[in-house]
Every structure is written in C-alpha cells, then in structure tokens.
Amino acid sequence: MIVDTLKVFVTVIEQKSFSRAADILYISQPSVSLHIRNLENELGTKLLHRSSKHVEPTQSGDILYQHAKNILLLYEEAKQKINLLKNEVTGSLKIGASFTIGEYILPALLAELAVQYPKVDIEVTIDNTEEIAQKIHSNHLDIGLVEGNVSHVDLNIQTFAKDEMILVVSNNHPLARLPVVTTEDLQDQVWILRESGSGTRAFSDLLIEDLGLRVKRSFVFGSNEGVKQAVIAGLGIALVSCLIIRKELDAEELTALRIKEKRLFRSLSIIRPKEPTTSKAIEIFMEKLLSSEK
Q1: Which domains, and CATH codes, for the chain?
Q2: SS3 149
Q3: Which of 135, 154, 161, 208 could form a disulfide with 268 if both were Cys (CB 3.0 to 4.6 A apart)?
Q4: CA 221 to CA 242: how far, in whole Å?
Q5: Does the keyword Metal-binding apply (predicted)?
C-alpha cells in the first residue's frame, strides 16, 4: 500500500537512517531499502543521498517529504472518521436555539444527524437568546445556539457563523420606492420589533440608538413569523435576519432597504458552560455544525 511506503520514506528522512527507521517500524533494513527503491522507480527520480553516516533528501525527496506528511495526516483523519461511522453512537443531545437559528438553520442539520446516527436522542428547545443562555447556565441544555450578545460571563462563547441583518418594508411602504435610504429617511418610522431578550431585538435597539433614530411608534411580536406578517401587512419597518426572509423576497412579498454605505452583520454563537460535559454525540454535533458553516 502506498501509505506504508510513504510512512517508511518519511521515517527514513526524519531519522536520517535506514537502520533506525527499520527499528522504529519493526521491519527489516532490506525491507526499508525495497520501499525506497520502489518509490524512486515509480517516480523516476533519486529521492535520497546515502552516505556511511546519514541520509539526506534530494530536492525531489524534500518535495515528496512535505506532501507525504500531509497525505499521512489526511489518511489518519479519514481512518478516524471511518472508525467513528463503524461504531454506534448513542446517548442524548439537548440543544437550545434562539428562534432564527432554531427555525432556519437547525432543522436541516438535525435531519442529517438523525440519518447518520439514529440512536442519538435529540431534544430541542427554541426560545429567545436570553432564555437559552439561562438554560445553559443552569445546565438544563448541553449546547446553546444563539444570535447576538450573551451577558453571562461564566459561559464559553464561540462564533460559528455571521448573519446579515436587513431592513424590510411592505411593497407599498413609501420607503420601498427609494433605491437607498439614509438616516434621515428612517426618522419617525413605525417599527416592528421582537420581544425583549431576543437577539434580533437587541440588534434592532442598537441600530436605532447608533443612528440616533426617532421612533414614531413600535409594535412587539414574540416570533419571527409575527414580525414578517406585520411588515407584509404594512404595519411598519423591521430589521430581520436575511435567513428568515429569503422566500418572501424571492416571492416579492417584501422589499429590502439598502442603507447608504452600511451593511449590518451579527455573530451566531455556540454557548456552553465553562466546564461542559462531553459525549460522542456532542462532539459529532459540534463537528457538523462547524463544518457546515465554513
């Protein structure tokens, strides 16, 4: 197998000796020589300078050594993942998610996880960011996925993605006709907001404060769907995640506003206790979450 030959080659380079490589790999020195000779014949080039004292790579050998190290590393990673698939993963996984993540990111991820690991029991709690943080803090959940800032200082917080926030209005709203809106255009508007404790609400409040906006009136809804339907009905303006309005924008049920020289992003974060419990199910979920958002 080529992996075995590369392992012999790398060991010879690092030990600078055929005999020491043979001792480490528990094979004979003639076997080491055969591996190297076969490799040189396959590549059609000399890979090693041999002397009575030590072995040094040629220029070709040095190139192969660098790539061989990467190949062996990738091979070991592949073996670990294959071994993981062969072993049954069981146990429970208690996940908490804020509304945007729980409704628009988590379902597809869990569907894939359930197919690969059917014996893992998954329990999902969807609530606003502050409530999820409280449940993580009290160890009622294994993992929390939230948007916005978390006030608890004794939690581990890790960003796993960025989320663009967009201002939306109904198609009949006066601002819908403007190609770009300014701070002045946003003064004295009616706002549709999420409830206190929501990451989206916190981000909206921060934008209103940063831009120094006067709010004519506000309506508060406890769900993303409520906010969307209120905007579609023409009740006011809202700042929402791009994740929740893709279908409405494609169907031209809403109009997105471009703020002059400004794009808005927030972090989506994983929160866990400072001293989290761990299990194979938790490790697998974390790996899937982080790889899916790269």
Answers
A1: 2-86 (1.10.10.10), 91-158+270-292 (3.40.190.10), 161-267 (3.40.190.290)
A2: coil
A3: 161
A4: 18
A5: no
Phi, psi of 278 (to 5 degrees): -135, 155
Is this structure's pTM higher than 0.85?
no
| Other CB atoms within 10 Å distance of the CB of residue 282 | 20
Whether residue 277 contacts residue 158, with contact meaning beta carbons closer than 8 Å, is answered with no
What CA–CA distance (Å, rounded) separates 7 from 35?
A: 10
CA diameter of the chain: 88
Predicted confidence (pLDDT) at residue 229 exceeds the cutoff of 60: yes
For residue 4, how far is the Cα from the chain centroid? Answer: 34
pLDDT of residue 260: 87
Q: From its phi and psi, is residue 148 left (phi > 0), alpha (psi between -120 and 50) or beta?
A: left
How are the residues of the chain apportioned to helix, strand and coil, as percentages rounded to the nearest 5? Answer: 45, 25, 30
